[in-house]
Amino acid sequence: MTRENIEKTINGLLIEEFEIEENAITPGAHLKNDLGLESLDFVDIAVIVQKEFGLTLKGEEMTSIRTLQNLYDYIFNCIQKK
Questions:
Q1: For residue 36, what is the domain's CATH number?
Q2: Residue 8: which of 79, 82, 72 has the closest Cα?
Q3: Of 38, 56, 72, 81, whose Cβ has the fewest other Cβ atoms within 10 Å?
Q4: Banded model confidence at residue 61, pLDDT cuts 50, 70, 90
């Protein structure tokens, strides 16, 4: 899977599941401060990532993911290691 596919998938899910405006979704967007995601939303993101990409996000890994770019990179790197 390419980075572009990962970004499109994640962005689409953010728009659909969390009703985030498309223009707010940029790689540098901070998940909490810019996109307004809360702690429980991160649980939902972890479930979505597992369903869409077959990856299990652990709590300690989620704490290092602060921006959309961090999330894209994390997913891409995990897929590359498979």
A1: 1.10.1200.10
A2: 72
A3: 81
A4: confident
What is the residue range of 13's domain?
A: 3-81
Tally of structural domains, the chain? 1
Residue with tokens 């994640």: 10
The pLDDT of residue 18 is: 96
Question: b/e per residue, 33-52, with b = 16+ CB within 10 A?
Answer: eebebeeebbeebbebbeee
Are 75 and 55 in contact by the 8 Å Cβ rule? The answer is yes
Task: Report the distance separating Cα 60 and Cα 34, nearest Å.
Answer: 22
